[in-house]
Amino acid sequence: MATQTFMAKSSLISLPEKCLLTSSTVLKSYLGHFIKRWHPPISPLLALCCFLICERYRGAASEWSPYINILPKTYTCPVYFSDDIIDLLPLSLQKKAKEQKEGFQELFYSFFTFFHSLQPLFSQPTEELFTKDAFRWAWCSVNTRTVYMEHEQSKYLSMEKDIYALAPYLDLLNHCPNVQVKASFNKQTQCYEVQSLQGCKKFQQALINYGPHDNHRLLLEYGFVAPGNPHSVVYVDPGEMVALPNYTNLTQRRTDHYFTSWKSVLLGAAVSQDGEYWCITLALKLCKTISGANVKALERLSELKESADLFLLEQLGVVESLRKEERSILGHAQVILEKLL
């Protein structure tokens, strides 16, 4: 909450570089010796994840403990979801969620030997510290809370682009798709600065904008959904075209043809009156088909919530929010399409 009024184009927050947790911070720490001698080099992302796990283990002895202590203990990103919950996501998002989980698993197991190389730092076996759950927590902390900040490529890290910076305090500001801000690292002041382009009244919540992301991307990358998001869309998976009445027996070649033609119409291609009617009818059938799947998913979510614990309730809640947002979009689309017939 703002304790004072911020005028348009005024600075909301200015965070000195020394307060940012970056790959440079990690390389200068006790982990630097181990990272510099490891080949092939680890990624900037992995370096930050390892540092968070190590610092959490150190507890009060860590200078970063005030920050680490306020980080969420778990997240509602799909990498935390069970297969049953992923199956309740829209079809196109299901695929991305499964890819996210698979990518995380591959990253964790591919660097298990590096985790073991850190054993001299601990009295406790590294297998007990660098668990899959601990790494998932660190991975989500970095992916959901870092700000974009380009760094010089270090010879001790992989060639993966180094664009991460954990920014204590700044990352407590919530996202709002309707807010306009300018955020970047100011090389003159050596601070990461967030400027409000609209201003903020006293006693109102100071908000920032992560970018023009739809709700699928927000859930996948940040673990939340923005109600009334103007960037939201309902994605149509080609497989959903096959599920339409009278189209179940189409060959894959014809399905691709109809999907391409329908997409061209949406993009403004000229069509005949019959062609326009066909496309509107198809779009309406598609809306109803996706709406039906949406209703079933919401019913299943309601059933699961009755016996869910708090951790599971949070996951079900974010999926339910997404489904409700898409229900609203589909409802409005159906009304418009029906008026066109």
UniProtKB/TrEMBL annotation:
CDD domains: SET_SETD4. InterPro entries: SET_dom_sf (IPR046341), SETD3_SETD6_MTase (IPR050600), SETD4_SET (IPR044429). GO terms for molecular function: protein-lysine N-methyltransferase activity. It comes from the Eukaryota. Coiled coil: none annotated. This is Uncharacterized protein. It comes from Danionella cerebrum. The lineage of its organism: Eukaryota, Metazoa, Chordata, Craniata, Vertebrata.
